[in-house]
Specification:
297 residues; 4-stranded parallel beta sheet; alpha/beta; 9 helices; 7-stranded parallel beta sheet; single chain; 33% helix
Length: 297
């Protein structure tokens, strides 16, 4: 049994406007664990989750239900709000909550590379052991987006990992270009070796079409609708296309009901209730649009 501690990257949650279940990290972890379950059964997950009090505590409870596989155990801790979550964690609380005599840890799956060195010191000095670490970075800072000063901390954290996954090859190249501004060629080479794209590129032969092989005239925007995804550019393109033809619909699964576009007659919103229904609807779409993402995701 490989007992793995999962260090989270929680940016949402704890407020009425940003529900923890809508955090992309939670959805990633759900899909990842579901996929791993079908591959191997010898991994046990210790999952750190934010401890919310009062009316927001339901968010943690619902997240537990979402991630409640038989091979999981949850440890609730206070997690600072973004961007403070990128610079520290509560050492004393973690020391109290992680009881190594009860939770033997073989591996760390760290989703916050910028804190990896701090966690390494924590386990060496307060728990007297040093488990290997694999990482996943959901977000890299660049000068044109989200610059909070933790890029260099993330790079030094990755250097102490066995491997660190990220979203796309394009994002990896952006990271390597940014590294040149501060680090030497040796660091560049080591980071180039440690950064791996996950999941790997989609192979066209693996794509499953709709059951009857037919498509509907639907364009799908299968992403968040914020500025980092170039959603405004997508809107303008659709408006221009509607001037030329009106025989298509636009499906935006994550569009909020309060958004003005949700009132437009040719726009469809929602994830279609179940995962199976969602995938069936996705396969019937004629075109999927992937907008330029400012952080290279």
């Amino acid at each position: 049994m490989i007992r793995t501690l999962v260090i989270p990257n929680i940016t949402w949650g704890g407020s009425s406007k940003k529900n923890l279940l809508q955090d992309s990290y939670i959805e990633f972890l759900y899909k990842f664990m579901l996929g791993m379950k079908s591959v191997r059964e010898d991994i046990f997950w210790y999952i750190l989750l934010p401890l919310y009090n009062g009316k927001h505590s339901i968010q943690t409870l619902e997240t537990k239900k979402r991630l409640s596989f038989p091979n999981t155990h949850f440890i609730e801790i206070e997690i600072p709000r973004q961007p403070l979550n990128r610079i520290h964690f509560n050492v004393q609380e973690l020391h109290r909550k992680i009881k190594t005599r009860e939770y033997a840890i073989d591996l760390i799956f760290n989703h916050q590379p910028e804190l990896n060195n701090q966690y390494k010191i924590f386990f060496e000095q307060m728990k007297n052991f040093n488990p290997p670490t694999i990482g996943y970075s959901h977000f890299f800072e660049f000068e044109n987006v989200g610059w909070k000063g933790s890029f260099t901390s993330g790079i030094t954290g990755i250097l102490d990992m066995e491997i660190c996954y990220l979203n796309t090859e394009h994002q990896k190249q952006l990271v390597l270009e940014e590294i040149k501004k501060t680090f030497n060629k040796d660091v560049y080479k080591r980071i180039d070796e440690k950064l791996k794209v996950f999941p790997p590129m989609i192979v066209p032969s693996n794509i499953r079409t709709s059951k009857d092989g037919t498509y509907e005239k639907t364009i799908v925007w299968n992403h968040r609708t914020d500025r980092t995804k170039s959603f405004m550019g997508f809107q303008m393109a659709i408006f221009e296309l509607r001037k030329q033809r009106q025989d298509f619909k636009v499906w935006i699964p994550l569009l909020e009901k309060s958004h003005p576009l949700s009132k437009v007659d040719y726009v469809v919103i929602g994830l279609n209730e179940t995962k199976r229904k969602y995938l069936e609807t996705l396969r019937k779409c004629c075109v999927g649009v992937n907008g330029e993402q400012t952080y290279g995701g």
